[in-house]
Specification:
Elements: H1 4-21, H2 27-44, H3 53-72, H4 77-103, H5 107-135
Helix pairs in contact: 2-3, 2-4, 2-5, 3-4, 4-5
C-alpha cells in the first residue's frame, strides 16, 4: 500500500486551510468580489444632479455605505484598503452636497462648492483608477 498519496493530499488540504485562515484571499478573488460594487458606484455618479443636492447627497451616501460594506466583506487587505478609500471619497462627496444645499443661492458659496465638487469627483475617479490598476496588475 502506498501511503505517499494520502499524505500528499492531506498536506495539500492542510496547507490550503492554513492559507485561508491567514487571510489568504488573493487580489484576483477580492477584486472579483469588489469590482461589481465599485463599477456600479462610479457609474452612478453620472446620474447625480447639482440641482437636487438633497437627493444626490442621499444617493451618494447610500453608495458610500454599499462600498464600505463591500470593503468589510473582503479578506485581502490590499484590495480592502483601496475599496474603503473609494468609499471614503464618496463620503467626502456626500458632505460637499450638504454644503451645496447650505449654499443656497449665494454666488460666492456656490463657486467655492463647485470647485470642491470638481476636486471630489476627480478624487473618486483617481481612486477608482487606483483600484482598477491593482485589480488588473
Amino acid at each position: 500500500m502506498n501511503l505517499r498519496k494520502p499524505a500528499i493530499a492531506t498536506a495539500a488540504v492542510v496547507l490550503s486551510l492554513g492559507l485561508t485562515a491567514c487571510g489568504g484571499q488573493s487580489v484576483e478573488d477580492a477584486c472579483q468580489t469588489a469590482n461589481e460594487d465599485a463599477t456600479e458606484a462610479t457609474s452612478d455618479l453620472s446620474s447625480i444632479s447639482p440641482t437636487d443636492p438633497e437627493g444626490s447627497g442621499e444617493m451618494i451616501s447610500s453608495l458610500e455605505e454599499e462600498l464600505s460594506s463591500s470593503a468589510d466583506s473582503l479578506e485581502n487587505e490590499e484590495v480592502k484598503t483601496e475599496v474603503q478609500n473609494l468609499a471614503d471619497q464618496f463620503g467626502e462627496l456626500s458632505g460637499i452636497f450638504a454644503e451645496l444645499q447650505e449654499a443656497g443661492e449665494d454666488p460666492d458659496a456656490l463657486t467655492e462648492v463647485s470647485g470642491k465638487l470638481t476636486d471630489a469627483s476627480s478624487g473618486i475617479m483617481d481612486q477608482a483608477q487606483t483600484l482598477n490598476d491593482l485589480c488588473n496588475a
